[in-house]
Please model this.
Amino acid sequence: MRILVTGGAGYIGSHTLLQLLREQHDVLVFDNFSNSSPEALKRVKQLANADFEICEGDIQDAGRLDQVFGDFNPEAVIHFAGLKAVGESNEKPLEYYAQNVAGSIELLKVMQWHNCRRIVFSSSATVYGDAKYLPYDEHHPLQPANPYGRTKYFIEEIIRDWAASWKVASAVLLRYFNPVGADASGRIGEDPNGIPNNLVPYISQVAVGRLKHLNVFGADYDTRDGTGERDYIHVEDLARAHLAAIDFTATHTGCDAINVGTGRGATVLEMVNAFEKASGRSVPYQIGPRRDGDVARSLAAVEKAEHLLGWKAKLDIDDMCRSTWNWQSANPEGYRQD
Ligand code: NAD
Ligand code: UFG
Model:
C-alpha cells in the first residue's frame, strides 16, 4: 500500500518506517528535519534493504503537500510530524499551535483534495491530564495541562469532525503512553537534542558517561517507592500498533481513539534498576524536588487496542532497557558521529 509518513525521520517515525518497509509497503517520508537527521533514514534504508522517497517539507505548506500528494497519490497517511516538548510549549504556545494544529489542518485539507481518506495520528496520553481514575481508559475525561497536550487534544477533535463530515474517512488516534527503547539492531534510536527531558534517554546518557547523575524528580509520591510511575511502551511494539491501525482503517470508517501502552507501570527507581541490569553500568542518582506538572502515576487500559486492532504489547522493561543500551553504547553521540 502507498503510505505517506509525516515526521518519518523522527524517533517513532523511523522505527515505524522500518516495519512498513519490511511489510513491503510503498512509503514516502515527508519531514522538515527540524528535530531529526537524514542519517536516520539512511540507516532505515540499510536495515530494510529497501528504498523509499524522501520529501523535505513542512506540513504547514499546503502547496508542497499538494504537489507531493499529486505525485505519490497515497492511500493512507501516518501523521507523526509535530513539536513535542512540554516545557517549550509553555514558552512558545503559538509556535506549537501553528505547527501542530494548523499544520494538521493543512494536511487534512490536502488529503481530502486527493481523496486520501485514511489517517493514523500520533496523539498522547497527555490528553487525559490528572487521573480521575486509573488505568486511563479512552472514556476518561480529557483535560490536558499544557499547550503541547492541548494541541494533541485540538487535533483529535479536528480529525473527529473531519471524519464525521466526510463519511468515507477513517481515522485512528493513537494515544501513546511513554515510548522508549530502540530497534534491536542498535542502528536507530532516540536522539534528543541537548539535555534530555525524558527519563530513559537521560538514564542512558548517565550510563554512557555523558551526564554525571540522574535527578529523580520527587520521591514522595503515593507509589510503591515514592517515585513517579509510568506505562513505558517499547517503540517496536508501538510501531507495530501503527501497522495494525493502518489495516483497521481499510475496513472501518469514522474516528477511534485508542491507547497504546502495556497496562503495566514502572517507577523511576525500577527503571534505574532495570537499566543497570541491562547495561552492566551503574546509574548514580540524586533525589530532588518534584517537577512541575508531573502526575504520580500513568497507566493505560489496553483492552480497546486488543479488541479493535488485535494488538497487544509483547516487550517488557528489560527489553526496553537492553535495546536502549545497545543503541546508546554503539552511538554515544546519537546520529552525529558518522
Ligand atoms: P520526533 O521529534 O523524533 O519526530 C517528529 C518528526 O517530525 C521529526 O522528524 C521532525 O523533524 C518532524 N517535524 C516536526 N515538525 C514538522 C513540520 N512542521 N513539518 C514536517 N515535519 C516536522 O518525535 P517522536 O518522539 O518521534 O514523536 C512523533 C509523534 O508522536 C509526535 O507527534 C509526538 O508529539 C507524538 N508523541 C510522542 C511521544 C514521545 O514520548 N516520544 C509521546 C506521545 C506522543
Ligand atoms: N523523571 C525523573 N528525572 C528525569 C526525567 C524524568 O525523575 O530527568 C521522572 C518524571 O518525574 C516521571 C518519569 O520520570 O515520573 C517519566 O518522565 P518522562 O519525562 O520520561 O515522561 P512523562 O510521563 O513526564 O512525559 C511523557 C512525554 C510527554 C507526554 C507525557 C504523557 O515526555 O511528552 O509522557 O504522554 F506528554
User: Anything to note?
Assistant: The radius of gyration is 19 Å. Residues 6-7, 9-13, 31-36, 58-60, 80-84, 99, 103, 122, 124, 176, 179 surround nicotinamide-adenine-dinucleotide (ligand 1) (CB under 6 Å). The mean pLDDT is 97.
